[in-house]
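S.,

Sequence below, as promised.
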Amino acid sequence: MPKAVLPAATAVFAALHAALASFPGPLFRSWMFFIMPLEGLVLGPGPGAIAAMVGGSIGCVNRGEAIILPIVALAEPVGAACAGLAFKGRWRDVLAIYAVMLIAYFAHPLGRALPAWCLWDIYLAAGAVLPACLVARRLSAKGSLRTPALPLATALSALVGVEADVLTRIFMLIPGFFYIFLVPEPVIETLTAWWVMGAMTTPIEALLCVAFSAWVGPPILVALKQKGIRCPMS
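The prediction came back faster than expected:
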């Protein structure tokens, strides 16, 4: 693969991410959740995170939500990176990221006070880490992308990535103390309402993301491999 391909692809994904992130999404996040996992799958964890951070930050400012820029600048790169790590079969790294943030969340008094069941989709994604990495490793061992396992690998990796984005936002809001600046009084009652609503609506975004990744991801990966570009690129 020519050395210029990865920087050029990173710039293209950053631009796409910025364009999608400039508009509010159907529920909570911007439309970037469609492209974010693909950044990790195609570019790899590091370049995918860079594309997500640059694009997400630009989009956040463009849609007038600069107040949450620190959250976006961390959450979206972590989501892209986790999708890439899962697709590379690096389950230890992904589980460590999930574990650190979940432990920090439940160690915080607010994390223990808020309803734990509201994070059900994050628990599901954490449970999908090992299957995602196993399928991805078997796919890599076969050396061929023309297999029914490819849509499953992209779907599971996308689930891990998009929910890592959600978990990072929660991590920044509670253990990161951003609730002090963003949550009106009464804090517990407001957060509980947010959590219950998120438990019903955020998984819809995740489902849309997984379906889109399973549909669009495999043709992209196959087309790039036919051009001599193996993904993830890094």
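The first helix runs from residue 5 to 21.

Coffee later?
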